[in-house]
Amino acid sequence: MTKKEKDLIYSGDADTPLRVLLTTDEKDSLFLRQKSLDIKKVKDNEALQLLVQRMRVTLELENGVGLAAPQVGIGRNLFLFVRIDKPEYPVEVVVNPKITAHSEDMFCFDDDGCLSVPDASGTSLRYKWIEVEYLNEQGETIKEHLQGGSRFENFIGVIFQHEYDHLQGTLFTDKLCVNEE
Ligand SMILES: [Zn+2]
Predict the structure, then answer these.
(1) Which residues sit opposite 126 in a β-bridge?
(2) 121-135, pLDDT tens digit by residue?
């Protein structure tokens, strides 16, 4: 982590939420368009632990299903997502993710939305399933197959795609389905 990143992370304690960047602010909007960098040290990284804790508090406060580090001003490959596919919906941490495979077919996911894009929702074009590889909070490698063919079933795969996109500087508004009605 850079000094600038550490200053932001240590600007509050573990219970203090971080400011969520918004596309309605010009400076924020430019930052949200940058590509994030990998995190080199996951184990015993105190700054990372504090960042994750503050992101948890922020996600809870904002009532979201996912939050990516660039949304709080940290350009690193990290996000939190709510495991709607697991009992009690735990919040899990994803570091340096890769999408290693995906369905050929895509579908239009209804009512995508984003904490960084105020007052907007839209139908985004998503893969029906993805295979992913990432590090968890303990630095262990996780490989998973994540589903998500519609909003009305388990759409954990869509949450992952949305958060993963943030790390590439992509927003759901870039992926809107063109509905021909
Ligand atoms: Zn988002």
Answers:
(1) 107
(2) 999 999 999 999 999
Rounded distance from Cα 139 to ligand 1 centre (Å): 24
Spatial strand order of the sheet with 91-102 comes to 66-68, 78-82, 91-102, 129-135, 141-147
What is the number of domains present in the chain? 1
Residue 181 lies in a domain: no
Question: Which domain range does residue 117 map to?
Answer: 3-174
- Give domain status of residue 37, yes or no: yes
Compute the distance from residue 166 Cα to the ligand 1 centre, in Å. 7
Q: Catalytic residues, which ones?
A: 163
Tell me 17's DSSP state: P
Q: Is the model more confident about 153 or about 27?
A: 27
- For the chain, the farthest-separated pair of C-alpha atoms sits apart, in whole angstroms, at 53
Stretch 57-86: mean pLDDT: 97
- Residue 87, in any domain of the structure: yes
Is-contact 134 142, C-beta < 8 A?
Answer: yes
Residue 90 pLDDT level (bands cut at 50, 70, 90): very high
Distance from residue 18's CA to the centre of ligand 1 (Å): 15
Closest-CA residue to 168 (of 64, 65, 97) = 97
**Beta bridge pairs of residue 121:** 113
User: What is the domain-level CATH number for residue 83?
Assistant: 3.90.45.10
